[in-house]
Design a protein that fits this description.
Number of helices of chain B: 14
CATH class of chain B: Mainly Alpha
Shape of chain B: globular
Strand content of chain A: 25-35%
Mean pLDDT of chain B: 86
Shape of chain A: globular
Helix content of chain A: 25-40%
Low-confidence stretches of chain A: none
Order of helices and strands of chain A: EEEHEEHEHHHEHEHEEHHEE
CATH topology of chain B: ABC transporter involved in vitamin B12 uptake, BtuC
Largest sheet of chain A: 6 strands, mixed
Mean pLDDT of chain A: 89
Number of strands of chain B: 2
Number of strands of chain A: 12
Radius of gyration of chain A: 20 Å
Largest sheet of chain B: 2 strands, antiparallel
Number of domains of chain B: 1
Structural class of chain A: alpha/beta
Largest interface: A-B, 47 and 35 residues
Structural class of chain B: mainly alpha
CATH architecture of chain B: Orthogonal Bundle
Oligomer: heterodimer
Number of helices of chain A: 9
Radius of gyration of chain B: 22 Å
């Protein structure tokens, strides 16, 4: 409990381009404690997805150290990692011919103890995951006969069946209208409290992020520009520098401060680069 | 959240009844086809004698009341040929199923990343050598070269396709295609210069079970059964790979290790099958699709079912080939398989989905 779930120290990471390593993260240090709900914000290319990949163990940093539950990430096997960390995919092609419960049971893969089939633990985990993701009524449905919202619930159930400590999400609400996005994030917040999950989510919507996450981390050019509760960390000035667009703070009727882009009518004369 | 008891146990995976029906049905079909193939023939051994000979051989029961020529025909020719057909059909169907899952490509067959071309070059090289017939424990140089050639081709493709960040499936396919093309050029060159051995070379390339013997069964059979058993234990990772490689990794699959393992075992089964029968086409492509259509994509059931029905299909095709006067069985599987596959393709196009 005392160890942070994820701990990054001076991490530099990037991707493999034809002419060598392209750095994206520039000496990032970050600790995420057990039970936290954290939103990662920042412009496209600021390093959010790379940071998520480093935490998931799918991107190896070329400098710095990453520890998961107090143990260096390099010491974790792929299977151990999958018992502790999962990624909620933004979308996933669910293979035709399977029913929902069968796909959700695939979440038990890293836990499987039997050669052919699932034991009582797996059965319980799948049942709980379907219930918690509000997908119990879908269990026997072929995966090809699901609406968009139903598919989303199945993906959440798949992630929960893995019984992770750390849940990572890369823009989980893309392509969703505001009601569906709020509903998904709301249910994830409830699950996070009920299951004592730690969640790190890349989000684009500053309003949703501020409402959902007790802690936001703003990335700007591969470095952490701000880190803290949204009320203090997510100022108009930080957001303006991170996104290169003028921002203003609006006080809602309920007294909440929210940061929104200061947009001229017609959106014609926005300053700032959009690299 | 506290654990609760499910109101009803969750049905996950193929039900035992359905699995029993599929696999039991496969055993029955295979038995019937195999019995027909052993009984049928032009040499006029009566059905009663066929049964008596097999029972006598397997259990030692009963006096030998038949001519010894009948026993030779049944026990040294027909039965090993049928068993070879089973082993080869099972091996090809198993390998095809694995490649279709791993490469996520409905056109994948056991030969897709090189074993057929490698085995062909090996076999044709052996046939072109100025040595007449070297046999070691009943295994000819042709079989040995074919087996080693098939494995070497796949090892080369795996090595070529492997990059810093792993082995992308597309690279694997393209490398397999290019290596196959190169090896096929070698085969063509040897055909061109084969002279009076042309018949033997072409015969091998078309695929045939005519050279079947107990020794070959004893070599190819255990290899294929071992490859199948190990592959069946990987059913979870093959299922999870259907979600895409990225999510398979999230679910704990070590992608590089798993790819090498699956490709290696499937190539082992393919090379063993090709070594004793030549390159028989369509069994490894059509059978997995057909069986998947009926039993679904769960490899726990798909893999054993594909093996049983692949075995039955090849024994049936070889029976047809024998009755048609010794046509190479590869021709029969193509004549049966291609139209069937086209029908399947049309069906899947009109129903709006792809085959897999």
């Amino acid at each position: 409990m005392s160890d942070p779930v994820v701990s990054l120290a001076e991490v530099a990471a990037g991707y493999d381009a034809a002419d060598g390593w392209r750095p994206v993260l520039d000496r990032v240090s970050l600790q995420v404690r057990h039970g936290e709900r954290l939103a990662l914000l920042g412009a496209n290319g600021s390093g959010k997805t790379t940071l998520l990949g480093v935490m998931a163990g799918t991107i190896d940093p070329f400098a710095g150290t990453v520890a998961l539950c107090g143990r260096p990430l390099a010491e974790w096997s792929r299977g151990e990692l999958a018992r502790t960390v999962t990624v909620l995919p933004q979308s996933l092609e669910l293979p035709a011919g399977f029913r929902v419960a069968e796909v959700v049971a695939m979440g038990r893969t890293p836990h499987a103890r039997r050669w052919f089939g699932w034991d009582a633990d797996d059965q319980r985990a799948v049942t709980d995951a379907l219930r918690d993701a509000d997908a119990a009524d879908l269990a026997d449905r072929p995966v090809t006969q699901l609406s968009g919202g139903e598919r989303q619930r199945v993906l959440v159930a798949l992630a929960l069946a893995q019984e992770p400590t750390l849940l990572l999400m890369d823009e989980p609400t893309t392509h969703m209208d505001v009601a569906h996005a709020a509903a998904l994030l709301g249910s994830l917040a409830r699950l996070q409290r009920a299951r004592e999950l730690t969640i790190v989510a890349v989000l684009h919507d500053l309003v949703l992020a501020g409402a959902w996450a007790p802690r936001v981390v703003v990335l700007d050019g591969g470095r952490i520009a701000a880190d803290g509760p949204p009320a203090t960390a997510l100022s108009a000035e930080v957001a303006r520098r991170a996104y290169g667009v003028p921002m203003e703070t609006i006080v809602t009727e309920a007294g909440r401060h929210i940061v929104v882009p200061h947009l001229p009518a017609g959106l014609g004369d926005l300053p700032g680069d959009r690299s | 959240m506290s654990a609760t008891t499910a109101v009803r146990p969750l049905a996950v995976g193929p039900s035992p009844g359905r699995s029993a029906l599929v696999l039991g049905g496969g055993v029955v079909v295979l038995t019937v086809v195999a019995a027909a193939a052993v009984a049928a023939g032009t040499s006029g051994v009566g059905l009663a004698d066929v049964v008596a000979i097999i029972v006598h051989r397997l259990t030692g029961i009963g006096p030998a009341t038949w001519p010894s020529s009948a026993e030779t025909i049944v026990w040294e020719l027909r039965v090993p040929r049928v068993v070879t057909g089973m082993v080869v059909g099972a091996g090809l169907a198993c390998a095809g199923t694995v490649f279709q899952a791993l490469l996520r490509n409905p056109m994948a067959d056991p030969y897709i990343i090189g074993p057929a071309a490698g085995a062909s070059l090996g076999a044709v090289t052996a046939l072109s050598l100025p040595i007449v017939a070297v046999t070691w424990l009943g295994i000819g140089l042709v079989q040995l070269f074919a087996f080693v050639g098939g494995l070497l081709a796949v090892v080369a493709v795996l090595a070529i396709a492997r990059g810093r960040g792993g082995t992308p499936v597309v690279t694997l396919l393209l490398a397999g295609y290019a290596v196959s093309a190169l090896l096929s050029a070698g085969v063509a060159l040897l055909i061109f210069s084969s002279g009076d051995r042309l018949g033997a070379v072409i015969g091998w390339l078309l695929g045939s079970l005519a050279g079947a013997s107990w020794t070959r069964v004893a070599i190819a059979g255990p290899l294929i059964v071992a490859a199948f058993s190990l592959l069946l234990l990987r059913w979870r990772s093959m299922n999870v790979l259907l979600l895409g490689e990225a999510h398979a990794e999230v679910l704990g699959v070590d992608l590089e290790r798993e790819k090498r393992l699956l490709v290696g075992l499937a190539a082992l089964a393919t090379s063993a099958a090709v070594a004793v029968s030549g390159t028989i086409g369509f069994v490894g492509l059509v059978v997995p699709h057909l069986v998947r259509l009926v039993v679904g994509p769960d490899h726990r059931l798909l893999l054993p079912a594909a093996m049983l029905y692949g075995a039955a299909l090849l024994v049936l095709a070889d029976l047809g080939a024998r009755l048609a006067g010794g046509v190479p069985v590869g021709v029969v599987t193509a004549i049966l398989g291609a139209p069937f596959f086209l029908w399947l393709l049309r069906r899947s196009v009109t129903s709006g989905g792809i085959v897999r």
